[in-house]
Design a protein that fits this description.
Pfam families: ABC2_membrane_3
Protein name: Transport permease protein
Subcellular location: Cell membrane; Membrane
Radius of gyration: 27 Å
Largest sheet: 4 strands, mixed
Strand order of the largest sheet: 2-1-3-4
Strand content: 5-15%
Number of strands: 4
Structural class: alpha/beta
GO molecular function, one term: ABC-type transporter activity
InterPro entries: ABC-2_transporter (IPR052902), ABC2_TM (IPR013525), ABC2_TM_bact-type (IPR047817), ABC_2_transport (IPR000412)
Shape: elongated
Number of domains: 2
Length: 348
């Protein structure tokens, strides 16, 4: 049996026998996917609530809108009171040809939506009242698949975070333990090439990442979550592998200078946790301030998230591989070169 095969089998067995590693690398991130998937399963189906006084053409048109839930109120005073109390974001008071909108400005997003909805309905009512046909036609349609839901955005981000955690924590911890137990020293003195040691560890890291991907996509594809992969999902495989290698090099770098398991765990936490929050794993990074979005570009997880979403959700073509793939490859080469230079086979 070759040294590469023996080391790969030994690494795989060590991982499967470590219950703590199995929990934190596979089950712990999976819990986030399940919890967020259940929490946001019905997101996007919420309706805008409006209090309506009167029963004219504007009120009737609002009742026909699928995104609006109308609550009929008897008096303007009662409708305004509901808005002031925070029960409803807006009140439409229709009295003949006079239409008033009273809204709460405390929620800028909802007030903008309410203003736009009511303004649109009033404009259509005005055009209908003139008896003329609209001059411009309006044909909205979404660019994503019709089955789009929250799980299709959650799965790529949380899967990438799980792969990052496994790559950084698993690699760093393994090298530190091997150095403390003098396994690395024995391998260095044995007729085993450094390439076999390195490639076997890379093989174990990729194997764990593949298991994570199969489990995560399988769970997310259950009917209760409803993940639907885009037609170009297979193009995410190069991004997935390059991202795994990038996180392996980070783990190798940490494992090169950390002397104890505690030190490697702390260093990995400092790297992985902020990277996850700043890379769009748990919330859309495009809602963050501009300078924070710029900072996030230095993290490989940001580019892995973007690349995975491009192919798993947005169905982009092969040309979208160039940017995230090139950055992840460059990151892997640079950090891998540094890690190889500072790597130590023996402890001090």
């Amino acid at each position: 049996m070759s040294a590469f095969k023996s080391l790969s089998i030994a690494g795989a067995k060590a991982f499967t026998r470590d219950r703590a590693a199995l929990f934190f690398i596979v089950l712990f991130p999976l819990m986030f996917l399940v919890i967020f998937g259940l929490l946001f399963r019905d997101s996007g189906t919420d309706k805008i609530k409006l209090a309506v006084v009167g029963d004219g053409p504007v009120a009737q048109a609002l009742k026909q809108l699928p995104v609006v839930e109308v609550e009929q109120v008897a008096t303007p005073e009662a409708a305004v009171e509901k808005v002031k109390s925070g029960d409803i974001p807006g009140a439409v008071i229709e009295n003949g040809t006079d239409v008033q909108l009273r809204f709460a400005a405390s929620d800028q997003n909802k007030s903008g939506i309410v203003n736009g909805l009511v303004s649109s309905v009033v404009d259509k009512a005005n055009i209908a009242a003139t008896g003329q046909q609209p001059r411009f036609s309006f044909q909205p349609s979404q660019v994503e698949d019709n089955s789009l839901n929250a799980i299709q955005y959650l799965t790529p981000g949380i899967l990438s975070w799980a792969v990052a955690s496994a790559g950084v924590f698993g690699t760093a911890m393994t090298f530190v333990q091997w150095r403390k137990k003098q396994v690395l020293r024995r391998l260095w003195l044995a007729p085993v090439s450094p390439a076999s040691v390195l490639l076997s560890r890379i093989g174990v890291t990729i194997g764990i990442a593949v298991v994570q991907a199969v489990v995560f996509v399988g769970i997310a594809s259950l009917p209760m979550f409803g993940l639907k992969l885009a037609g170009t999902w297979w193009l995410s495989i190069p991004i997935f592998l390059l991202g795994t290698l990038a996180f392996f090099t980070i783990g190798m770098l940490i494992g090169s200078f950390a002397k104890t398991e505690e030190a490697s765990t702390a260093a990995a936490q400092i790297v992985v946790l902020p990277m996850a929050f700043l890379s769009g794993t748990f919330f859309p990074i495009d809602r963050a301030p501009g300078w924070l979005q710029t900072v996030s570009q230095i993290f490989p997880l940001r580019h892995m998230n973007d690349g995975m979403q491009d192919f798993l959700v947005r169905g982009k073509g092969i040309e979208a591989l160039l940017l995230p793939g090139g950055i992840l490859l460059g990151f892997t080469l640079v950090v891998g070169f540094i890690a190889a230079k500072v790597f130590r086979w023996e402890g001090n």
